[in-house]
Amino acid sequence: MKTEIIIHNSISADGSLTGFIPDMENHYKIAGEYKPDAHLIGSETIIKGIYMFGEGIPDEKPSDFKPPQSDAA
User: Fold this and answer.
1) Degrees, nearest 5: CA angle 60-46-58
2) 3-state class of 51 per DSSP?
3) In this prediction, what percent of the chain has a pLDDT beyond 70?
């Protein structure tokens, strides 16, 4: 079976990827309609998005460094 890769970018009417604020709700609504098995998003993209659309990156807590518990035996 061939792997299918779809690149989904929001661009301006003139084809630019920068210098405008995209409608992120609509962007991810459309991206979700492809029913992907996975989303690959760069860490720099996530950090920039958090600063632009979120409330910043929260400080780390000691519990952030504990490995998750697994139900697997």
Assistant:
1) 20
2) helix
3) 99
